[in-house]
Amino acid sequence: MATEYSISAKEKIVRGEESKLKVVVVGAGLGGLGAAISILLAGHDVLVLESASEIAEVGAGIQVLPNSSRVLQTWGMKPMLSRYATRPKQLNMLGWKGNLISSMDFHASAAQYPGTFYWDFHRANLHKCLYDRAVELGAEVRCNARVQDVRIEDDGLSASVTLYSGEVLQTDLLVGADGINSKLRELLLGYPDPPTPTGDLAYRLLLSTKDMMKDPELASFVTDPQVNYWMGPAAHAVNYVLRGGELFNMVLLVPDDMPADGASTLEGNVEEMRALYKDWDPRIPKLLSLCESVYKWRLCIRQGMDSWSHPSGAWTMLGDAVHATLPYLASGAGMALEDGAVLGECLSRIKDKSAAEKKLALRVYEQCRKGRTEMVVNRGNLQQYLYHLDDGPEQEERDRKMRVVPTPPGE
Ligand code: FAD
């Protein structure tokens, strides 16, 4: 009989006032809310400051890989997330004309890490679950609270945070989770530090599966949930089903044609987008014919920082603010969630509120996270090169190597 594995949820630590930190997390994105949950479970108090007027998440789908599904389960979120999760059967890597190069069985792969899953979500559902769990554990979340400045108090024991409204808040520990255009990163470094453009942009589409079900060739994408990657010259495409077949997520990754000094998100031109894929696997133009409007996102990265934390021990950073990566490994949010998990783990060990205890916790946190997140950013850059090869010997070599991943029976 097959053994049912499960990952147990952590119990919230109960601690006395002498060791309970007042933590301010800046940014209620996936990373900031994850950190809030983890720090609350470590027995501290958390206030989350969010610049937006309401708690919401833009974008479409998000893949959660086994590493981050494990983290979410330790935060006690499996029951709430299971309602929204789609569990795709396999990953298919295809050439741009639609030829199957290799497949990976997700269920068999997840079984190597018992109790974990490959999950696909609508971002809004994942985000709302994180928000609900943080609030359930006692987080205070404030919207319309944009952080303008940070000051470390002379005693080094606390930070003060100034909002654009003029309000000033004191905290034992400040956690910057304010995303790729991070203000806190610049304040910590002490100089402007814009993200680095990668030369690619993403069109992000959400299609209604009702329209797809009318065409048998497209209907199979819905009835048999799989994650598909098509790789072609200078571009690739990714798609998968969301909410158990209600919606279809599609991302197109192409050369960046957006004005260099303009906004990083713009309304796209559907005809221009379709033209870029007109000669690809005929199922892609068919899918794109169902799209009426689209937005495009410039893709930038963050190469990491020498140090993620202030020497006082009163301020650290996580998520895209530190190590934004190309989404080509579907791991940016996963890395932000892991950051939060490790930070909470380190803060669960502190015995008092002294600068020495906080410094030690932040040093261990950073040492655990730096190498791994830098590796993911670099690997994302390599995937950009590999996914976008022109047809020719290098592409043939890539495909040959990809075939080493066993194709499940039946393919
Ligand atoms: P954000 O989500 O950007 O959150 C930052 C928050 O801080 C925002 O709410 C913002 O309003 C707030 N804020 C900003 N400045 C301030 C301020 N001064 N004061 C107060 N609040 C502030 N990752 C995956 O793991 N899997 C995927 O499948 C995946 N797919 C992707 C597809 C695309 C096309 C893209 C672009 C990314 C994808 N990612 C994926 C990456 C993932 O979206 C990010 O890594 C993740 O959302 C980063 O979370 P974060 O909390 O660090 O930042």
Plain-language structure description:
Belongs to the paxM FAD-dependent monooxygenase family. It comes from Phialocephala subalpina. It holds the Pfam family FAD_binding_3. With 411 residues, the chain is of the alpha/beta class. The protein has 14 helices and 18 strands. The protein has helices at 30-41, 66-74, 78-82, 106-111, 123-136, 183-189, 209-212, 216-223, 270-276, 283-288, 320-323, 332-347, 355-387, 393-402; strands at 22-26, 45-49, 61-64, 90-95, 100-105, 119-122, 140-142, 147-152, 159-163, 168-171, 173-176, 196-208, 227-232, 235-242, 247-255, 265-268, 294-301, 315-317. The protein has an 8-stranded mixed sheet. A 5-stranded parallel sheet has the order 7-2-1-11-18, with helices on one face. The longest helix is centred in the C-terminal third of the chain and has 33 residues, at 355-387. It is globular and about 65 Å long. The model is unreliable at 407-411 (pLDDT under 50). The structure holds flavin-adenine dinucleotide.
